[in-house]
């Protein structure tokens, strides 16, 4: 296919993680509803290949007879991940809690913001249960987390998240995407301390104990005879 402005297009590449030039490798057009009583719709499919990593993306362009000629709906498959949040690994996070965490981020990336808030609330409840923090409601449980955390700001921010969750779950108000992104960061700070830093600190304590035990064992071991004392 000869190169032309129509054969190149800048698209966000999920693999390069930035906008790159893509080359058009194939195109297909389909028109439906050509009869007098049928509703006219047009679909155009374009296969683009990233000129950097060579991964492909399918573009679907849709229009119908009621739309102006210069207006079309564009979709890309797989969906472009620009602005997506990706789950972080936590060494000691229980599988059920890890699943809720991943599902919450999936909802955020799909713009299902109310469901994301509901998932984060369930995750927070699960963390409290896992850490044996009791309380008659989420407010009391968040306060109970203070005994496990060195920084009261995390608890304060968790209360802000709780208010956001009440509005989304009980009043069905969609949260602001920017605020929800910050709420996810707060939850991740909590998971990082309770399930990652604490785990690494315990590993460090175990390593230091092992090192001290070896040092004591070496100090108690009888010294090897010098060569001059051997007859």
Global outline = flat
Total strand segments: 5
Give the uncertain stretches in residue-range form.
none
Largest sheet: spatial strand order: 1-2-3-4-5
Distance between the termini: 90 Å
Query: Which CATH class of the largest domain is shown?
Result: Mainly Alpha
Structural class: alpha+beta
Sheet-strand content, in percent, reads 15-25%
Helix content: 40-55%
N-to-C SSE series?
Answer: EEEEEHHHHH
CATH architecture title of the largest domain: Up-down Bundle
Give the mean pLDDT.
84
Tally the helices: what do you get? Answer: 5
Quaternary organisation = single chain
CATH topology name of the largest domain: Four Helix Bundle (Hemerythrin (Met), subunit A)
- Rounded to the nearest angstrom, the radius of gyration is 29 Å
Largest sheet composition: 5 strands, antiparallel
Count of folded domains? 2
Structure write-up:
The mean pLDDT is 84. The chain has a five-stranded antiparallel beta sheet with strand order 1-2-3-4-5, with no helix packed on it. By secondary structure, the chain is α+β, with helices and mostly antiparallel strands. It folds into two domains: 5-77, no CATH class; 95-201, Four Helix Bundle (Hemerythrin (Met), subunit A), CATH 1.20.120. It is built from five helices and five strands; from the N terminus they run E-E-E-E-E-H-H-H-H-H. The chain is flat, with a radius of gyration of 29 Å. Helix 1 (95-109) packs antiparallel against helix 2 (113-130) and helix 2 crosses helix 4 (152-169). Strand 3 and strand 4 form a beta hairpin.
